[in-house]
Amino acid sequence: MHEPATVSRQLVVEAPIERLFEMIATPGWYISDHAGDKTPQTIHPLADGHVLRDDRFGNFFIRVLEVVPPTRHVSTCTYSPLNADAVAASGPATTIVIDLEQRDDGVLVTVTETGFESMAATEDELRAMLDGNADGWEKGLRWLQDQAAHT
Amino acid sequence: MDDDVGRVFHALGDARRLVILDELTRSDGATATDLAMRVSISRQGVAKHLRVLADVGLVDSVRRGREVLYTANPRAMQRANAWLERRGQLWEQRLARLKRQAETDS
User: Fold this and answer.
1) Phi, psi (deg, nearest 5) at residue B57
2) Nearest chain A residue (CA) to B80
3) Separation of alpha carbons A23 and A87, rounded Å
């Protein structure tokens, strides 16, 4: 039987579980480029989530579904490639479950992402998601710069 | 349309289509009538789901006399799996950065 599309990864971190939970509960902690460099981000709390505006990558609507400190955090993330006023709060979203488990050798961090079937995105959009949206935006900005240089 | 990975995931997001695809991957092919009997879905329902699966390249069809034989096409699934693998690698990078930052802070 085929299972719904799921991505799951684990890693042991030698740090206090409370500190780790604080980090993974920060909205959009994972949004950065390949090198891990972050661009300025602003977070606007809403009644049912947060809007994270990243100067480089665009806007993300993050809805928190479940918080069990310091062991579990469940949220959905909707990427909005449009302008800052058009964050898609109800658009297709993947669900990101993060579980923290204290073990003798550290804290086992497990990330499980599901919900890809809710996306009917084009391959280009999916590739942009894969690249942390960096490449898609960089290509777009380069295209705009090229256009500007020739007009 | 098998280059559209997002639509493949969308097509896979229906339990009845997964059952139909499972049946096809376990056999050398089947007609819509055969599938309807095997998966307990009406023939019209099976035909509708087969169209969705065929549109994204998960299923191929070939006419054989008065019947149409459907077979699973693994290429679209392989592309979707490759995308998921790259998505997993992205999470590996994110977790590695989390580990570096947390262990540096501690």
Assistant:
1) 85, 5
2) A5
3) 24
